[in-house]
Every structure is written in C-alpha cells, then in structure tokens.
C-alpha cells in the first residue's frame, strides 16, 4: 500500500437511481476517487442501521448511502424512510465517538452520474482530512470495552455482536 | 460450509483489462477458500465465455458462480442464463461490476485492482449465502383501464379497442374530450379542435370494445401487473341512462343558471342539469346537486316534469363498480396555472384581464360570446396585450417551460388580427419557443401579419393612469430588453397565457396507483429517454400532460404509444417477475406493527387474531424497507437477506479487516 492514507468508503447504492448513476459515471468515463466500494440494494430503504455499523466495525472509514431524489423513489417513498433513519443514525454514531461526516446520504438520480462521482470525491477528501476511523480505539476504547465519546451517553447495544440470522 | 465457487473475470477487451490487472486478480481469487476455480477471459459474455462457465459448472460441480465483469443491469440475465443451462439455479450467480464501477471510473491501476479484489471478495462472501429462487410467472388479463378521457386517453382507448382488446375508460367529468374540447383552433395548422376531436369522441362512445364510465372516479386499485382489481365510483347523475335519449329538454326547462367554472372557465353559464357542451359523449346530462333547486330547497322538479322518457331519478345513488384489468394507462392531464397567484397581473381584480382558457372559450364559435372578442362592457377591444409565460419559467411559480404557451399566444395574436383587423396586438415574451414541426413558420407568418412583439417579462398590469392616453386603459409595464428601456403600453384587454401544471390532486392520484411524482408533481416515467411511457410500477403506463407539459401531437403519440406497449403485454400473455419479495417469519414476528405503515404498497397485513403481520406476496415489490425496519429481524428480503448483505460487507472490506486484526494482535 502507498504511504499516504486512503480512506475506504462502503457505498450502499439503490438499484434504480444511484447504482444507475454510478453505471452512468463509468460509462461516461467520469474519473472519481476509487475509494468507494459499492454494494447494491434494491432501495436505500433497505439499508438498515446494522449494515452501516457493521461496515464501520469491519474497518470502513466512511459509509455513503445513495438513493433516488425525494419524490422519485422507485418504491414511492423508501428513500424518505432512509432519510429518517439517517438523521437518527448520525446522532447515534456521534454518541459512539464517530464523526458524523463519516456517514453521508446523497440523492442521485439515474441521470446524475456527476452528482454521485462528486459526492464520492468530496467524501473521500473529507475522510482524508479526518484520518482513519480506528474502531477499536474510538468505539471500543482499546481494551475491547465500549467507550463513549466524552460527555456523550454510553451506548452499549452497539458493541454487542450482531444477530446473524437471515 | 462446502460450496464450490467459480470466479470468472472478464477482460471486456481492454475495457477492464486495460486498468485492472485481471491475471493477478484471477490468481488471487483462485487462492481463496471455497473457490474451486478462477479464470480470466477476454469476453465472458461471448458464447465461448458462457460455454466456459457452463462446462465448469458441469465438470467441476460448481455450486456458486461469481462473474466479475460489467453492470448487472447489462449482463446479469446473460450469466443467469448460462447457470440455468448448466443446471444451476440462476439465483446462485452474483456479479461484481468491475467495469462501470471500477475500471471505467479511474485510471489508477493499482487502486482499481485493489477495488476489483474487494468487490469480488464481497461477491464471493455474498454468493455463499444465496438461495435458489424461482421466477414468478403471472398471466396478463387482456382488459385495460384507461384513466382520463382527454385526447391521450381517447387515442389509447381507440387503439386498443381497434386491436380487439376491451377497454374501461374512466372520466371524471360528465363528458370525455378534456381540454382539447375547449379549444377553438389548434396551432400551427389552425384546424378547428372540435372538428378533429368530436369524431373520435363519437367513436369511443359507440365502440363495442370500450366501456365508457363518465362522471366516474377510480376509488381503489389493488393487485399487480396482469392482475389489477379496480373499483370505480360512478357518481350519481340523477339521470337514468337506460331511459335518457339526450334530447336536452331538461336543460332547456331547468330554471337555474350556474356560472360554468370548468368548461367555460367562468365566462359562460350552464344549467343545474347540464352537459358541458352540445357534442358531449356520452350524451346524458347530469344534475349538479349543489346548484339544483330541488336538492337545495326541496321543490322544482322541472326537469322531471318535462322529461319525455321519465329518465330523471332523484333517488339515484353513487354506484361502485369493480372489474379486473391487466394493465392501466393513466392519462389524467393537467390544470391550467391559477392566474390569481400573480396578483400584480390583476386577474380577478381588473375586469378585462382574462386567462388564455377564457379567451379560447370567447373566440370559440360555440362559446358564450359566439366567437366574438368582447370586453366586459360588450364592445370589441381596440388593443390587446398577450402576456407569455404566466406562471412558467419563473422560480416563484413553476420553473419549467410549459411548452405550449408561445404557440397558442401566437395563435391568439393571429385570431385577434383576423377577427378585429383594426386592433393592435402586442405579445410580451421572454423567448419564443417554436421548436415543433411547422412552428417556426407559423411564428413568421404571425409576425408578418403585423403583430407587435415586445421582448421582456411584464412587471405589472395596472389601471392607474399616468397620462391622458392611459385613462380608462389597462397599462402593461414592461422592461423592453431589446430597446433597453421601461415601457408602458396601454391596452383594452390583457390575455394571460397561463402555463400547464399538474392536476391539483396529482399526488393523491399518484398514491392511488403507486406512481412517483417529480418536484412539480408530474408523474415520473421509468426512464426519461428510453422508457417514457412505463412508470415504476410494472403494468401502469402514463400518457400525455400528466407526465409534463406537451402539445396535442405529442400527447396523441404518447396515447398511441402507451396502447402499443399494453398490446405488447397482452400479446405476451404472461409476464415473468423476479422473486425478490419480503417474507415474515411468524415465529419471529412480535406483532409490533412497525412494518405495517412503512410498506408503500400496503402489502403487509396484520392478523388481529394471531397478533402477527404477514406480507401479501403478490403485492410486495421487494424494496426491503420493512426488512430494514423490523426490530425482531423477523422479515427476510429474498436475494437481499441480512446474512447476504452482512457477508458482502465483510468481503468487500477484507483487506482493512485484515489490517485491523494485525493491529489488534500487535
């Protein structure tokens, strides 16, 4: 690996708008930061908080959720459910000591390859400035026990092992 | 777990191989546990590439396949087909999109190779948890529902009916015809709207394959492509259609005059029992309960007394009609922009400021003035100002261009010159958008007829005179951008060329059918270029101005196009659907009902007796919003299960996980 730090972003892209936006960005040969690793979901509404936390726990420095614009959701309003969860999840990760910038939400329609590419570029830059997440130190406090950020309430459930049923 | 995974890395010529080190990736993949074979090949999608996969499945007994190539939207179907031919369930294949999402998006070879490995590892981890699924085949009911009897709906209905398929055409108003029936002449050919429209309306009324449900509204739509159940409310018209001959005596005898806000746009009257216009289809009148003297005061019944066939029935009730259709075309049209929203143009306050819809009725030979252009005092105007872009191209109202106003404003200018040769006509425009067939020629013709064209957005219409010339006139204050100065133009009549906007209840209609709306409220098509007629809901199409502003020729083309799409579906007979559906494990469900209101398709029902929720599979569209929300993890989203996505997260982060482990053990 190169000496400079390169953040890793997990991108949850909805099948109908944002994944197609990413396809379009590629087809149009829009070069953007290769730091985002995509996972396709049918709707951004499928992105459960567990998946986001899982990504952070497994070593991602940032998580990007991308969906259709409000009012343009393939499933009418799944993206609005995402928005509601996103706002709560941002507060939760802040309480865990994770900078809220590490979780971002972007609306990109199937024709907005540039919007998606710019969002990835922007987020990559922000994460470069923030540095690595270091889940173990930040969230687990180095000794494996949950450590909340100073002044923030302790959130134990987060460090509990994920239930892994289908 | 003892799965045998085959990993196939496509070069796509040099599209992928030019950036990603495919040989290295293949070698690396081959070393992973569970991977039985990893190969790279020039074109995986070619028949030779597919043969390679099929042969490996058979000879090496592969139980899972990962293809690292282009977007699944491009070739997922292809590789699922290869698996199926080799006897492997097609859903045991996963693609890693290392072309669009990787090789084409960067020229950093090292980073691209690293990203490809991550995406492939994610796909491998995911595919291990895939389950065999079967596609769902449903039959298509050959009947079609068309909502809206304007020119779009009429065209679609006739196309399908002529092709031999049955159509239910639902229209809210007492007659079909829509906005086009209100118009006088149509640009740029100036043929009379009624002359070209009414024969088609009659065809609809008489067609054996069309069930016309006028004065009716769709109440409920249930089901899915091929199998919708539709409930329509047929509003009580208080006229028995079995007995009515459409003679019109009731209208003649009705003593109650009502200002007609709909068809006559507020400048004409109708009776309390009425047909919107003489050529109405169907020919039966309706009684407007709000204005009927009998309904309001309990006596009158003039219509009933004079009706020669005893068709008036004051006891009539709304009727609910239910039927089955396979496809739906929504053609609900538009509303004209409400000019009272721009108070400084004076509509509703200054008597001789009228809207374009009112002018259409005024200039129409069958309209309230018999086609004469008149001021409120009954005299013809000596000068007319036509203001373009009222409510359009304005961020305070509608940002978009309404597309038809330039042309109809030019048509108005022509009609004023034709009917009142001595009158001055001024058109106030921002730009002239005359991009249709023969539009530019029409624009030139109107200019040559001596119409004054003033470029600038009008600031105000006022009756406050500053000079003697302006006394008793309407003064149009405008910055003329060609002269570069403020001007005040006194005129007798002002016509506001109002734009096109979504129906007031477009969002409710969207909800009824499960459609999406754009920011303005127009219905969204599946793809703005390549699929402008299908909506996001399989089996529901849109046509005409409910999708966005458009003129008559495009509306007709869309109506016919939607009909062709539906005919194609009917011809197919069946449709195959992906089995991506949610399922609730009754053992796990706690009955909390969080999912119940999340489902945009009302596909989740709650069983009061057992205190658990259940997904109605036929209605589920597979978005997974409920799966994500279930606090008991009782809901599984097929092919996007929690376990599959969690595994993909782990796989896609394989390198950073390793780094963390190293760090932890240090």
Structural class by sheet pairing and helices of chain A: alpha/beta
Beta-strand content bin of chain B = 15-25%
User: On the 0-100 scale, what is the average pLDDT of chain A?
Assistant: 86
Kindly report the average pLDDT value of chain B: 95
Structure description:
The complex is a heterodimer of chains A (about 170) and B (about 675). Chain A has about 170 residues and is an alpha/beta fold. Chain A has helices at about 20-25, 50-55, 80-95, 115-130, 135-140; strands at about 10-15, 35-40, 60-65, 105. Chain A has a 4-stranded parallel beta sheet, sandwiched between helices. The model of chain A is unreliable at about 150-165 (pLDDT under 50). With about 675 residues, chain B is α/β, with parallel strands linked by helices. In chain B, about 30% of the residues lie in helices and about 25% in strands. In chain B, strand 32 and strand 33 (about 610-615) form a beta hairpin. Chain B is globular and about 95 Å long. Chain B contains 17 helices and 34 strands. The relative contact order of chain B is 0.10.
